[in-house]
Known about the structure:
Elements: H1 6-19, E1 25-30, E2 38-43, H2 56-68, E3 74-85, E4 100-101, E5 107-110, H3 115-132, E6 142-154, E7 158-162, E8 168-183, E9 190-200, E10 210-221, E11 224-235, E12 238-249, H4 252-263, H5 270-290, H6 310-316
Antiparallel strand pairs: 1-2, 3-5, 3-9, 3-12, 4-8, 6-7, 6-10, 7-8, 8-9, 10-11, 11-12
Helix pairs in contact: 1-2, 2-5
Keywords: Hydrolase, mRNA processing, Nucleus
Enzyme class: hydrolase
Family: Belongs to the fungal TPase family.
Amino acid sequence: MEREDGAEQNRKRLRVEQETTTQPQVVVAHRTQGAPVAEQPLRLDRSIFGFSEIEGVLRKVSDFLFIHAKTPDIEIEAKLGFLLDKDTRERLYLPISCETEVISSNLTFQSSVPAELFKLFNDKLNERFRAATQPDYRGKKVTYAHFREVDMFYPGQVRVTLDEAGNEKRIIRKKRISDINFHSPQSVIDFRISASTEEHVERPHTRPSHERQKERISYRFELFSFDLTKVEKLDRQGTSTTYEMEVELADMALVRAERQKLNNKLPNDFLAIATGTHPTIARTRITAHAHAHASPHTHTHTHTHDSTYIAYDMARQ
Length: 317
């Protein structure tokens, strides 16, 4: 049994982890008398107090993972979409320039994106996959899967999934445990991180309320699965088509194991996982922002600040 609140315990231990992590180095020129300029690393301390903290969105994501990763059969994923005002049905507007968590009962999350943005990411991820299959590629492995499924939904949050041939793949009851919503004014899309459990159940004997036909393309890189899904929903109102984009932590067993090491004060990689999850999502949104002209959307208020990304993009070159 844990003796402290999970989030507070995580904050203390993440700080200890950071104190043992190598700091970035700023390289400066140093000239000795009569000698050419030589580059020497300038080592900067973490702070006048001798330690540093992770704050803001990174802290929220880290605490969220720490709290929920211990739950058996948990699924943690980020859906890209739009935070909408329930009254106006327009994308949320706040007088801020930085990404932030939003807590409000007057918001809803639309977990679909425009077809143009969906195609943009499909093309870019295909390029990434093709590059990773070249003989001279030396980076980490990228895998690809393309499949079609049908989801049938029943009362009690039960979902029956069939493969393309009509065979049962899984029957589950999916229950959302918690989520956090983030508004990203510097991007054309927002995101929601959710923790859900999946319980295997028997197939219901009633008729489904509706069904969804899915065509999914999934790209796996390190711990993350990037899923692009075209969805056709069939119900009494007819058929509608939407496009969904998700980033899922695909190896929860590893995340859970690293969390347990952190909880037991053992060497671990939980901090690397936690602080790597948000940048993975962020880079996806920044790509969307850079190609905003390809994805016009009626819910998007353009109040972005391009200069924010200048130093970041320069550092990557």
